[in-house]
Amino acid sequence: MKFRNFKMVGYVVYGRGSFNQLDEILAPQRKGDPPIIFLLDHYFENKPLAKRIPLRGKDKLIFVDVSYEPKTVYVDKLAAGLKQEFGTVSGIVGIGGGSAMDLAKAVSLMVTNPGSSADYQGWDLVKQPGVYKVGIPTLSGTGAEVSRTTVLTGPTKKLGMNSDFTPFDQIVLDPELTAGAPANQRFYTGMDCYIHCIESLQGTYLNEFSKSYGEKALQLCQEVYVNKKGWDDDSDDKLMMASYAGGMSIAYSQVGVAHAVSYGLAYLLGTKHGIGNCIVFDHLEEFYPDGVYEFKKMVEKNKIDIPQHITKGLTDEQFNTMIDVSLVMKPLWENALGEDWQKIMTRDRLRALYEKL
Ligand code: NAD
Ligand code: ZN
């Protein structure tokens, strides 16, 4: 038995208003001339947060387009642009949801690694550390702030750059930044965390480390989405810690069926991670009966729409593409169904599941 020896985030600051400490946090990282680059979710263009970015010297603020989940071509373009303009940079700060944070991680790595980010989609393919990188979530749930991956859609697959060089050097967890998010979006991303917990806690990779974080994150999600009457500051505080703990839980275990299936939807139809997981999880009673039961209650209580029949009318070829993308996710299937997963999740069974969505 070989135990995973995983790299964690370097520094963590948590608290309402902790974003105001960013300038001070970055100061020791400034290496003279090379600037710090801020990748800010385009939602914040013309919003007060954009004015609060602590720009100094040649620092640059780039509003990143997250209309689509990050693509390898976009990462390559951003990294090449920075190398051309500055030669090198002192650091990359990603501020936004999972998409903006993943872009920051990937761009940090591609400033120092040769070739295309598509060359590094997989496990432990990245060879050089990236430049200093900071993650600042404005939505809670993905756990991208703590994970060792950055999920990218490339020419042939949707797969992360999973490596010890991928985690952030610093994260700033300021629940104030998530306050204005629309209810539907907040639910979809929050449910990403809920689903991480269920898939981790019901998985075959579970150990006491994952369980400790997973149970706490699950409890926080339940407090926010099951017990509370409305949304308040405390909900933002709790969900931010749920996201962190949920991410820590899957660091030592894995996600499962909903994620493996949702990757196929994302690749073929561009369905976003949070909503895609919800669409799939809604139909996973046979794998996660208690979690799906509670999920349906939360959907109802929070008055959320979960799209239906999104795979209606797709061709055999399109179903096969989704099945191929999904079955690449071997560790997810193994965690969910055990070593014999290939005998359990046949192509026909997976096709039947996709047809239900
Ligand atoms: P997102 O980052 O894709 O953002 C969703 C939408 O919300 C965007 O339109 C964005 O502009 C907007 N938004 C962000 N913050 C806002 C705020 N405070 N107020 C209003 N609108 C806001 O959504 P997400 O669910 O956080 O992230 C999904 C992405 O994260 C996917 O690309 C997925 O692949 C990735 N992901 C990564 C990991 C990881 O471990 N690296 C884990 C899970 C998901
Ligand atoms: Zn997820």
Provide a concise account of the structure shown:
The chain is built from 14 helices and nine strands. It is α/β, with parallel strands linked by helices and 357 residues long. The chain folds into two domains: 168 residues, Rossmann fold (3-Layer(aba) Sandwich); 174 residues, Dehydroquinate synthase-like, alpha domain (Up-down Bundle).
Key words describing this protein structure:
9 strands, globular, 357 residues, Rossmann fold, Dehydroquinate synthase-like, alpha domain, binds zinc ion, 6-stranded parallel sheet, 46% helix, binds nicotinamide-adenine-dinucleotide, 14 helices, single chain, alpha/beta
What is the C-alpha radius of gyration, as a whole number of Å?
A: 20 Å
Determine the CATH superfamily of the largest domain.
Dehydroquinate synthase-like - alpha domain
Mean pLDDT value: 96
Name the shape in a single word. globular
Count of DSSP-assigned helices: 14
Examine the secondary-structure arrangement and name the CATH architecture of the largest domain.
Up-down Bundle
Order of helices and strands: EHEHEHEHEEEEEHHHHHHHHHH
Quote the CATH topology of the largest domain: Dehydroquinate synthase-like, alpha domain
Bound molecules: nicotinamide-adenine-dinucleotide, zinc ion
Main sheet properties: 6 strands, parallel
| Separation, N- and C-terminal Cα atoms | 38 Å
Structure class = alpha/beta
Total domains, how many? 2
Q: How do the strands of the widest beta sheet line up side by side?
A: 1-9-6-4-2-3
Strand count: 9
Q: What level of helicity do the residues show?
A: 40-55%
The top level CATH class name of the largest domain: Mainly Alpha
Which spans have pLDDT < 50 for at least 5 consecutive residues?
none
- Strand-residue proportion: 5-15%
